[in-house]
Amino acid sequence: MRLTTKGRYAVTAMLDLALHAGKGPISLADISERQGISLSYLEQLFAKLRRSELVRSVRGPGGGYQLSRDQVHINVAEVIDAVNESVDATGCHGSGDCQSGETCLTHHLWCDLSEQIHAFLSSISLLDLVQRKDVQLVAKRQDRRYVDQLIMSTGEKTSADRKAAV
Amino acid sequence: MRLTTKGRYAVTAMLDLALHAGKGPISLADISERQGISLSYLEQLFAKLRRSELVRSVRGPGGGYQLSRDQVHINVAEVIDAVNESVDATGCHGSGDCQSGETCLTHHLWCDLSEQIHAFLSSISLLDLVQRKDVQLVAKRQDRRYVDQLIMSTGEKTSADRKAAV
DNA sequence: AATTAGCCGACTGTTTTAGTAGGTTAAATA
DNA sequence: TATTTAACCTACTAAAACAGTCGGCTAATT
Q1: Would the CA dihedral through B8, B95, B118, A12 be positive or negative?
Q2: C-alpha to C-alpha distance for B19 and B49, rounded to whole angstroms
Q3: pLDDT tens track for A103-131
Q4: Which bases of strand C have any atom within 7 Å of the beta carbon of a protein residue?
Q5: Percent helix, strand and coil across chain B, each rounded to 5?
Q6: Do B104 and A3 touch (CB under 8 A)?
């Protein structure tokens, strides 16, 4: 089992999509900007997320990605799974042939652990995350910074422009 | 976070020690034989287990390793920790400076997960494992095979010899 | 003196991670 | 219609970790 930036990036990016849902497709460039994840790396992750039918893509200008299902029906476990980061803690992938065809001494322990982790992560939907206070706080900060960046680059000045940009 | 053969081997080896406690020091060669783990690799792992004061060593013939504490007072989490396989799921080791000094969108989620896993693994002692039915079954099988191997190599034949070997 | 078994450091092939680079294709817009 | 946008795809890479090997050394027992 492993949980590295790969799985964390995937969940973070999916949560970014969830937070900005209903505003049309979100480009990977936007997610890259807001979440500080390399664009090329995001592309690789979204290729997998798309294959697992967790997101839909829209090509061309104004295009990007959208969640393919309701936020309630996407949980953290399946997002991590989609980018090939198994939540399985056994060495035999649950088959029980860990020690030359037979069950090793600690097989059941790792099965229990895997179950525990999976139960926890699959019980958390994107909607749950979106509704969390701490997530909303970070999201607000990121959005503010994102808009500021936008204004800087386009040279707009007034607070009316600022609002228009959002 | 990662949980690979390294951490699994460590727990398995410690459980082997626990199962054969009270019979004097257990050599790594014995553990290697019973659990199917490379002897040299075990040596590396036990160097770390010793540094964490989870085991005591006895040198010379008849030497080996023993648990340095009671089985009730050694839990799975600290064994995994001893061989440098952190149970931490955050990328910032819990500090919260995940995204260029500030908290990332999913920081609290990974904190919760880490807590969950740690609570689970630290709630399981070696004694708990020793008392499990499935562990006892596998242990019995391994011991039988171990004795058979011993008889084969020493050329003893009768069931009296078999008993004497144990 | 010889054997046992812990101790120690260096070295190795393989896999994964995290990312880069360079290009192609589909759709919208000027 | 030409240009731009942004998805899509393949290949490559440095660095790290994993899992294990090898050779030699030291302490204790027989």
Answers
A1: negative
A2: 17
A3: 999 999 999 999 999 999 999 999 999 99
A4: 3-10, 16-22, 25-29
A5: 60, 10, 35
A6: no
Residue with nearest Cα to nucleotide D5 C1': A61
Largest CA distance in chain A: 71
List Cβ neighbours of A2 (8 Å cut-off, separation of 6 or more). A85, A86, B1, B2, B3, B4
- In this structure, what DSSP letter does residue A2 have? B
Strand, coil or helix: B75: strand
Q: Which two tokens stand for residue B82?
A: 């001893």
In chain A, which residues touch B (CB < 8 A)? 1-5, 8, 11-12, 15-16, 35-36, 76, 89, 91, 99-100, 102-110, 113, 116-117, 120-121, 124, 129, 132, 134-135, 138-139, 141-142
Q: For residue B103, what pLDDT is reported?
A: 95
Q: Which residues pair with A137 in a beta bridge?
A: none
Of B1, B104, B124, the CB nearest to A12: B104
User: Amino acid identity, residue A71?
Assistant: Q
Asked whether the whole model's pTM tops 0.85, one would answer: yes
For the segment A39-72, what is each residue's pLDDT rounded down to a tens digit? 999 999 999 999 999 999 999 999 999 999 999 9
The Cα angle at residue A155 between residues A16 and A33, in degrees rounded to 5? 20
